[in-house]
Amino acid sequence: MELLVGDTLYFSADDGSTGRELWAHNTSNNSDPWQVADINSGGGHSDPGKHLSIVIDDVLYFSADDGSTGGEFYAYNTSNGSDRGWWLTSSVVQRGSSPGDKMQILVDDTLYFDAKGGNAVGANCTLHYLNLAARRGYLQRYRSK
Q1: Predicted model pTM
Q2: Are residues 125 and 144 in contact, defined by beta-carbon separation less than 8 angstroms?
Q3: How far apart are CA 80 and CA 108, in angstroms?
Q4: DSSP character for 32?
Q5: What 3-state DSSP class applies to 110?
Q6: What is the DSSP string of 50-108?
Q7: 114 half-sphere exposure, CB direction, 13 A CA radius
Q8: How far is CA 84 from CA 24, 77, 91, in A?
Q9: How far apart, in whole angstroms, are the C-alpha atoms of residue 85 and residue 132?
Q10: Are 93 and 67 in contact (CB under 8 A)?
Q11: Cα 50 to Cα 29: distance, rounded to the nearest angstrom
């Protein structure tokens, strides 16, 4: 994941102790990078943006794994500036969902994305949505066969 918001570059990196997490770097003052979020606390990797990463207004939306619920859909408000400016937008599906792996599209105030159901090979893919104004939503109507 590499996303630029204003003068700040957001990216996934591993510092050797907290695993692969969300980091930022201010390109205008060349400051040292800082860790934005340790979603999979400890040494585990959350792999932010592995399957989905998009910026809408000042908010980063990205996939990440907290180590217990599997791949989920998170957000980070870049204008907040707080290390707790991130949140779980919604619990997508069971463990291993890989939200946004194959599809992500913004239509008006709604972000549509795919997610797989579970860890099984060939698991059904479902269409989900997130209403950005309400910061919630879930749609599971269409399944691949």
Answers
A1: 0.79
A2: yes
A3: 24
A4: P
A5: strand
A6: SS-EEEETTEEEEEEE-SSS-EEEEEEETTT-STT-EEEEE--SSSS--TTSS-EEEET
A7: 11
A8: 14, 9, 18
A9: 16
A10: no
A11: 28
